[in-house]
Amino acid sequence: SQLVEDLRATLKDGGLTLYYQPVVELATGRIEGVEALVRWNHPTRGFIMPDEFIPLAEEAGLISELGLWVLRAAVHQLRDWIDAGLVDSRFSVRINISATDLQSLQFIEDVRNVLKETGVRPEQVVLELTEVAIVKGNELDRYSLGGLRGLGVGIEIDDFGTGYSSISYLRRLPVDRVKVDRSLITGLGTDPTQPALVAAVLQLVRACGLEAVWEGVETAEQAELLRGLGCLSAQGYFFSRPVPPGQIPELLAAQA
Ligand code: G
Ligand code: G
Ligand code: NA
Ligand code: MN
């Protein structure tokens, strides 16, 4: 299709851009990192969201190229923020990676190279992958995950709770954190049974030796309930929508 051809062209001519959404430490309000979210500024159609063009990139065989572009852009952006003295060594950039990236040994090399070329500490880069991508994959994924983790980068399971959540893989896979899908907190603040569910998920995640990040926080009440239940980190429109990088300095300056 025309859109696929446009996407192919834009990977060469820089029509993609990254927005960033803060991840916040609930106890303090400190911004502990940001998630990079890709957008496509199309010349005639305006902004196209990733839900629309990521599947297209997968089908057209462009997803590796897109993934590499996102990886390099996000880690170089982090380098710039570090150099500008805006963030310290605890601050991380989270990058969504596709199942294709996960199955590619080249991707591990790409991560190694971008860390080397930027000098960013590997702990400051966190790769987010969906549990669907992991479960659909094969044994190789475990080696790829191990290989990535061997570089020292963080690994986070995204959209936790929407796929085939299995306790056995949570224990088995070399991952650091899960990002709990926003559907698990939509009723928080309205449905009185929801806090118990959040508490149970948190306990389960911690029993597996992992930590949880809660996404989709849209109200102060939800943030307060999560904090009260002992949750450490969260993300959502209540704290900030995804913003262009130019707005990150003011968000950092305004943090509690
Ligand atoms: O940006 P938005 O909040 O609309 O994201 C929609 C979906 O697209 C999410 O599932 C998100 O994980 C995915 N997504 C956003 N940016 C990227 C990216 O750079 N690479 C991949 N593979 N997925 C992304
Ligand atoms: O699948 P992933 O978690 O990577 O998706 C991130 C998506 O979630 C992006 O499209 C982002 O715009 C969206 N998002 C981020 N915060 C919120 C929120 O508080 N509420 C809702 N409904 N969507 C959110
Ligand atoms: Na994500
Ligand atoms: Mn998610």
UniProtKB/TrEMBL annotation:
It comes from the Bacteria. Residues 1-256 form the EAL domain. Keywords: Membrane, Transmembrane, Transmembrane helix. This is EAL domain-containing protein. It comes from Pseudarthrobacter quantipunctorum. The chain holds residues 253 to 508 of 515 of the full protein.
